[in-house]
Write a sequence for this structure.
């Protein structure tokens, strides 16, 4: 093993640039996988800390499975349980605050972006928790408009005992006078604003409802068994509509974040696989380069295992190196991103980011994948290397020959894989289709050697024209055909890069068309009243029906449609319910239908029906026409899926649209969280604007946006997201393009002696340079050809796979194709430049001595 | 006792019309401690013969018997071990690993056998010093002259103290004096340590160091001569004989 490691290290050190470039591919994958998994869990943990801080001070809490507020009468069911020593109902809800709500200064960072409204029964709650007042008094029954807050919140708001501050509520701004001050908050999470139960219910527009029943029990806290038994007993008493323990509010945020994390992890793993592929390619080149060395080693007594070990050691070294560097850079990347993103993130989902979270699991996974994939990528070439016979060392010409004989089997494997991938396309299952894209890529790499000749011939004609007078085009073509395996290896490297480029290009172009139409219908109303957090509705403070009525009453205002929110769950999966008015909603807004059509709006009003989005279908596995049981505060209700459709704002969230009437009846929610309105035809928008804004003044929780301003804002946001996607794309493509440069450089090194000989017998520098450039262009041509082909397939399969989430129509990525072609050839020329210069400048004598 | 023996050894390259019989029914043997030179014009099958003797290639027909064992019947692992411990090779081309230093290259068979690196290198240093390379131990092959590379290869062939040394033009790139030195060394290892050496060469002066010379032509043994005086004095006689046979 010692010798193998030495040899591996020496070979790697001998080709520093190549080692660097191939290792880079692994570094890149690990950075993404690890970095992203620092960012997301940090956010998740901050969120969890928020929720735990809210829940952790009492022994147990009972909440609705739906995550919604419920009838306090449930408490009666617990009366018979003797171990319960204290019990108090509470209405707890996070209120997202608009930007600059308290400081009114956009320049300074908001110290309070959200508060936790806690409505309590003043007497009952004091049997549960202690409130060590620093000043003033605690709440008293019947208090309305009074609050108790911590010293730290008071400082942040710059209020003192007796002062009044305002909070946005469903009925407009509500004043709260500080009657008591508690010590500064030390727990993570949002600051609490303690009010009486009635006040909280009024502020949130849910009279007579509570969100949790907190309990303390007379059971030894260390007696885990007894606690579990008691928890079961409580669960039994309250019934299956309720859960004992964790709070569920925020489950939708959780779900969305977890989804995001899964997607980004997939991206990282994909990058790692590409890295593996690049390494595999490099190994194949290395194998060719080292035929003689391996043969010689075998001849002097190295066993097959020794050779195998040497190759695997090389993979291992690169894998370890890449993974270690990747982990380090990933950490820096993750932490850096968290720093940069902390402000916008905390504004958007209202969590205060704490220290970055590094889960041991993800470190292990990164190490496992980083090293594992590298070593795995080396296994086939290593096995092949171990099969090289000692004879290879003994003949100067033996190198190229042995590879072409291998073509037969690889070709048929390639054909089989490509056929399989096409079959997978017709399988109809999204995961299968997406996987098919990769199978196709792998298949093509196997096919590559056989494709070299036809493509070379095709491009050769072109090149022949270009270099007609030089005669170097022919030499270049001859070189290609002489070593199809090497050419194929290089070309596959280019292929992967371009395939991904064209593939994602196809997805993006298919998406943008759809998204822009959807945006227009979805957000194209004359006015939009949007809350601070879009898509994650639970923590927004909405408005009661009064606001919509007020708006509708303004002369010249046409249809006003609102969207309401309620949390729910089906089969344990958190879902976000949006209540719409079946007649008004289509007039000012619209959904993009994937299955079913506009007639579904009407069905929402008849019985319990829902329109669900793609994320919902993905998460639950349900189909059009299925009837699902949705958790409501009063037990489950059966809703039937009447259409699959998506809107722009909720595309990522597991969402179902139901009628507002049903939402009020089943979930007790009538709070508008998003309002859209159109003006009557012919009215002067300028004249109406002040009136509308005046009404909205009492509801600072809404950002009132006129006309197409929001659309423009969203489109701009979207464009940014688009460019970010392209950036990531380029990121993915670059390593494989680098790999192409790398393989090309190797091909020059490989032929050092030959080039030296050419120079010695009279080829000019210019001729050698031209020959290498021609070769690079040919290589790029082959790689581009295959890349575009597989890119088309990848793009198509991805679009089909994504249709499940998102209404998409495949559009042929003509622009992507042209861009891919240009990039491929340009890069070919660029990639040829360095080796060409190197070849031309080569010292003839040194070249001839080269071994 | 014969350490090496071939029976009707035949090697045919290619098929049909283009088939070339590189070796055509060769019967030869080499005794323990014997120094055998193989001579013949270019393309007569000398290298091919050597490769077959070392078990590096498979004969089309016939047998190679080493230490009484048929090479064809040995597993790859057994053959590898045999090469590592009992045989030393000097090839006509590509002898050294470019990434290893002279001493590491020379120590390779011993290191492959699991001997500690220092020990292996000490042995290799001994041989390299004998070949006048004491100053160039740490140099990589591309920093050595062709002749120096060849000497490193010879050192490597001897380092594991093999019973059988197979050398293909070991003096091909060397000047007369160094060539003589190497040939003398090969003869000495035969005499002193009882090693068998089979050496391919086209140089009559070098061949004259051997105990016995086998002449090949068109893949056949056409003559054999036993030399009494093994110090190169017979060079003229060998040369004369060769020219005669070539015609
Ligand atoms: N792999 C091969 N395929 C086809 N023919 C081969 C192969 N190897 C050797 N030959 C042919 O076999 C014959 C013997 O070759 P060999 O290398 O043994 O000659 P040699 O005696 O060593 O010549 P030289 O003194 O020039 O090295 C030659 O005619 C050669 O062309
Ligand atoms: Mg030869």
């Amino acid at each position: 093993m010692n010798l193998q490691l030495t040899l591996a290290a020496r070979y790697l050190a001998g080709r520093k640039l190549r080692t660097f470039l191939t290792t880079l591919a692994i570094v890149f994958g690990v950075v993404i996988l690890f970095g992203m998994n620092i960012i997301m869990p940090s956010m998740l943990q901050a969120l969890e800390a928020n929720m735990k801080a809210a829940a952790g001070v009492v022994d147990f809490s009972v909440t609705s499975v739906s995550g919604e507020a419920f009838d306090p009468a449930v408490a009666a069911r617990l009366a018979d349980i003797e171990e319960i020593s204290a019990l108090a109902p509470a209405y707890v809800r996070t209120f997202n605050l608009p930007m600059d709500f308290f400081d009114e200064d956009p320049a300074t960072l908001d110290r309070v972006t959200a508060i936790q409204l806690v409505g309590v029964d003043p007497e009952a709650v004091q049997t549960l928790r202690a409130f060590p007042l620093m000043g003033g008094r605690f709440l008293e029954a019947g208090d309305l408009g009074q609050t108790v807050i911590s010293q730290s919140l008071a400082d942040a708001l710059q209020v003192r005992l007796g002062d009044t501050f305002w909070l946005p509520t469903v009925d407009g701004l509500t004043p709260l006078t500080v009657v008591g001050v508690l010590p500064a908050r030390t727990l993570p999470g949002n600051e609490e604003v303690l009010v009486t139960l009635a006040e909280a219910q009024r502020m949130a527009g849910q009279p007579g409802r509570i969100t949790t029943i907190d309990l303390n029990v007379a059971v030894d806290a260390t007696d885990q068994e007894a606690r579990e038994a008691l928890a079961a007993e409580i669960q039994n008493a309250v019934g299956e509509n309720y859960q004992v323990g964790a709070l569920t509010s925020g489950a939708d945020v959780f779900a969305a974040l977890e989804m995001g994390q899964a997607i980004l992890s997939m991206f990282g793993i994909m990058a790692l696989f590409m890295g593996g592929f690049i390494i595999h390619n490099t190994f194949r080149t290395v194998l060719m380069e080292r035929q003689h060395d391996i043969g010689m080693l075998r001849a002097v007594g190295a066993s097959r295992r020794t050779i195998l070990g040497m190759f695997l050691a090389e993979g291992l070294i690169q894998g370890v190196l890449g993974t270690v560097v990747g982990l380090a850079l990933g950490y820096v990347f993750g932490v850096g991103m968290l720093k940069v993103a902390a402000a916008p993130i905390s504004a958007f989902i209202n969590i205060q980011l704490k220290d970055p979270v590094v889960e041991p699991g993800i470190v292990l996974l990164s190490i496992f994948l980083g090293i594992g994939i590298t070593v795995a990528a080396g296994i086939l070439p290593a096995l092949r290397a171990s099969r090289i016979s000692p004879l290879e060392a003994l003949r100067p010409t033996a190198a190229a020959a042995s590879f072409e004989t291998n073509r037969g089997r690889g070709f048929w494997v390639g054909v089989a894989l490509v056929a399989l991938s096409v079959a997978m396309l017709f399988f109809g299952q999204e995961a299968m289709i997406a996987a098919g894209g990769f199978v196709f890529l792998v298949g093509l790499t196997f096919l590559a050697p056989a494709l070299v000749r036809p493509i070379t011939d095709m491009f050769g004609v072109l090149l022949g024209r270009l270099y007609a007078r030089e005669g170097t085009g022919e030499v270049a073509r001859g070189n290609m055909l002489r070593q199809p395996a090497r050419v194929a290896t290089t070309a596959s490297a280019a292929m992967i890069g371009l395939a991904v480029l064209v593939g994602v290009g196809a997805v993006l172009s298919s998406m943008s068309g759809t998204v822009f139409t959807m945006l227009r219908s979805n957000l194209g109303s004359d006015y939009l009243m949007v809350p601070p957090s879009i898509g994650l509705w639970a923590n927004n403070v909405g408005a009661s029906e009064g606001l919509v009525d007020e708006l509708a009453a303004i002369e010249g205002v046409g249809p006003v449609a609102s969207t309401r929110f309620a949390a729910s769950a089906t089969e344990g999966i958190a879902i976000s319910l949006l209540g719409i008015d079946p007649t008004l909603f289509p007039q000012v807004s619209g959904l993009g239908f994937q299955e079913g059509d506009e007639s579904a709006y009407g069905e929402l009003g008849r019985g319990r029906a829902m329109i669900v989005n793609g994320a919902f279908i993905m998460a639950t596995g349900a189909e059009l026409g299925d009837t699902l049981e949705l958790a409501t505060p009063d037990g489950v209700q059966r809703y039937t899926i009447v259409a699959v459709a998506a809107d722009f704002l909720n595309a990522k969230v597991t969402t179902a649209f139901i009628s507002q009437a049903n939402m009020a009846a089943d979930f007790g929610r009538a709070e508008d969280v998003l309002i859209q309105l159109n003006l009557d035809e012919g009215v002067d928008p300028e004249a109406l604007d002040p009136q509308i804004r005046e009404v909205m003044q009492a509801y600072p929780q809404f950002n009132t946006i006129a006309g197409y301003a929001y659309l423009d804002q969203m489109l701009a946001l979207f464009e940014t997201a688009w460019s970010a996607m392209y950036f990531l794309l380029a990121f993915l493509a670059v390593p494989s393009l680098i790999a192409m440069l790398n393989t090309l450089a190797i091909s020059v090194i490989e032929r050092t002696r030959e080039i030296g000989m050419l120079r010695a017998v009279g080829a000019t520098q210019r001729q050698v340079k031209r020959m290498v450039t021609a070769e690079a262009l040919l290589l790029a041509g082959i790689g581009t050809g295959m890349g575009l082909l597989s890119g088309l397939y990848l793009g198509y399969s991805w679009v089909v796979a994504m249709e499940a989430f998102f209404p998409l129509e495949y559009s042929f990525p003509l622009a992507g194709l042209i861009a891919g072609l240009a990039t491929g050839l340009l890069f070919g020329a660029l990639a040829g430049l360095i080796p060409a210069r190197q070849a031309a400048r080569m010292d003839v004598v040194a070249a001839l001595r080269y071994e | 006792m014969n350490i090496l023996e071939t029976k009707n050894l035949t090697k045919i390259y290619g098929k049909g019309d283009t088939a070339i019989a590189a070796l055509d029914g060769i019967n030869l043997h080499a005794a323990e401690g014997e120094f055998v030179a193989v001579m013949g014009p270019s393309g007569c099958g000398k290298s091919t013969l050597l490769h077959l003797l070392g078990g590096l290639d498979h004969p089309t027909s016939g047998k190679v018997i080493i230490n009484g064992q048929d090479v064809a019947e040995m597993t790859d692992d057994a053959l590898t071990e045999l090469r590592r411990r009992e045989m030393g090779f000097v090839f006509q081309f590509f002898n050294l690993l470019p990434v290893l230093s002279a001493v590491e290259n020379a120590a390779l068979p011993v290191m492959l056998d699991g001997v500690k690196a220092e020990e292996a290198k000490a042995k290799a240093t001994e041989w390299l010093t004998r070949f006048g390379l004491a100053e160039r131990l740490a140099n990589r092959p591309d920093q050595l002259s062709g002749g120096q590379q060849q000497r490193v290869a010879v050192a490597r062939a001897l380092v594991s103290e093999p019973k059988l040394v197979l050398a293909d033009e070991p003096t091909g790139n060397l000047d007369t004096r160094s060539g003589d030195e190497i040939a003398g060394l090969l003869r000495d290892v035969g005499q002193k340590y009882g090693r068998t050496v089979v050496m391919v060469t086209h140089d009559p002066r070098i061949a004259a160091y051997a105990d016995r010379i086998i002449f090949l032509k068109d893949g056949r043994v056409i003559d054999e001569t036993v030399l009494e005086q093994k110090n190169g004095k017979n060079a003229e006689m060998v040369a004369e004989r060769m020219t005669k046979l070539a015609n």
The interface with chain A takes residues 47, 51, 54, 56-57, 76-77, 80-81, 83-85, 87, 89, 91-100, 104, 108-109, 111-113, 117, 141-142, 156, 160 of chain B (CB under 8 Å).
